[in-house]
Design goal:
Elements: H1 9-19, H2 24-33, H3 40-48, H4 54-64, E1 71-81, E2 90-95, E3 101-102, E4 120-125, E5 131-132, E6 139-140, H5 142-155, E7 162-167, E8 193-199, H6 201-208, E9 213-222, E10 237-247, E11 252-253, E12 259-260, H7 261-272, E13 278-286, E14 289-295, E15 303-304, H8 314-324
Parallel strand pairs: 1-15, 3-10, 4-7, 4-8, 8-10, 11-12
Antiparallel strand pairs: 1-9, 2-13, 5-6, 9-10, 13-14
Helix pairs in contact: 5-7
The protein binds zinc ion.
Zinc ion (ZN) binds at residues 77, 79, 267, 271, 277, 302.
């Protein structure tokens, strides 16, 4: 049953603990039981707020879910599918090489997973939500996550930081999202970056206010007692946490049929590693046929135009150096 409600958290925790050694069949039962929900506070804010912009969504979440927390959302990077029938010449141009925040090495507040290693960036995947609805059948996204993280870690012009990967441990009983309610105990993050995976389209739309979102990366920064971002030595905001969602409602694929999964994963992971959007999108119309062209071609182009972006472009590689070239001296 999809909307099964368990009587108490104690029972739920026990149930989950007992699932950690289950076989494939048991795990699929768990997938159905772990249903993310939009938190009540967010629903109430939605009834009164118009959240048409990322800034509006950010304000709404910070005023409800994250009021009084030592960290708040700093940016919400949304990756949308572009409409092809437009005849406007310049559709979009963004040249933000990196975002305004940085991970700070040796920041003890960020020892979320307790491993004591604060010179790497820890990524955690939520395995029950790592299956994409595929154009040619379901896709296990975990090998895709691994391969795309490896590109950022090893193929940029700077290979300064290690990315540590683990799978979210459901037996902790801690909610795997800071934003969505999975019916588990709310808590601090368990990792620097939590990849929630493929979230139902109605939830993407409820929180983000738009049905066209392929993926989203939320970035949180630490704040002081007055609510202002804590600055790093180099004047950036001190990054606390990042969370990534993909839209389960799209037909994903390993090719260009449907939406190319590698391209969207590589892009969102770029945001978790502090990269911004880069490139100018123009359309050229010849004999009624419109062609969309990005210049320069990078995975961090702001909109998905139905082309492969499953590789790092020259600006991706260089901008990665802007964020990571001096690591671990941020
Ligand atoms: Zn983006």
């Amino acid at each position: 049953m999809k909307n099964r409600i368990l009587a108490t958290l104690a029972i739920f925790t026990l149930f989950i603990s007992s699932c950690t050694e289950m076989d494939e069949k048991g795990e699929s039962h768990l997938v159905q039981t772990l249903t993310p929900k939009v938190p009540e506070a967010v629903k109430i804010a939605q009834a009164t707020n118009k959240r048409v912009t990322a800034e509006g969504i950010k304000g709404m979440l910070n005023e409800t879910l994250f009021a009084g927390k030592p960290y708040q959302i700093s940016s919400i990077c949304i990756y949308k599918n572009v409409e092809k029938q437009t005849t406007v010449e310049t559709i979009d141009q963004q040249f933000q090489s990196t975002l305004s925040h940085r991970w700070v090495p040796n920041d003890t507040r960020r020892n979320w997973n307790g491993d004591g290693n604060l010179n790497d960036i820890d990524f955690t995947y939520l395995a029950p939500f790592a299956t994409a609805n595929g154009f040619d059948g379901p896709i296990n996204a975990i090998p895709v996550y691994d391969a795309m993280l490896s590109k950022w870690e090893n193929e940029g012009y700077c290979n300064t930081v290690s990315l540590d990967i683990s799978v979210y441990d459901l037996s902790t009983g801690i909610n795997p999202s800071l934003i969505l309610d999975f019916g588990l105990t709310p808590g601090d993050p368990l990792s620097d970056v939590q990849v929630l995976g493929f979230v139902p389209p109605e939830i993407m739309e409820a929180v983000l206010g738009s049905p066209n979102v392929l993926g989203v990366a939320f970035a949180f920064v630490f704040i002081d007692e007055n609510g202002n971002p804590i600055k790093t030595k180099r004047g950036k905001d001190d990054k606390a946490y990042s969370e990534v969602w993909f839209n389960e409602g799209y037909p994903w694929s390993n090719s260009l049929n449907g939406i190319n999964i590698q391209s969207v994963v590589l892009h969102e992971f770029g945001h978790t590693l502090n990269l911004g959007h880069f490139g100018i999108l123009q359309s050229f119309t010849t004999n009624g046929e419109t062609e969309l062209v990005y210049q320069p071609v990078n995975t961090m182009n702001a909109l998905y135009i139905g082309e492969y972006r499953n590789f790092l472009g020259p600006n991706d590689k260089g901008n990665y150096c802007e964020a990571w070239g001096s690591w671990p001296w941020n």
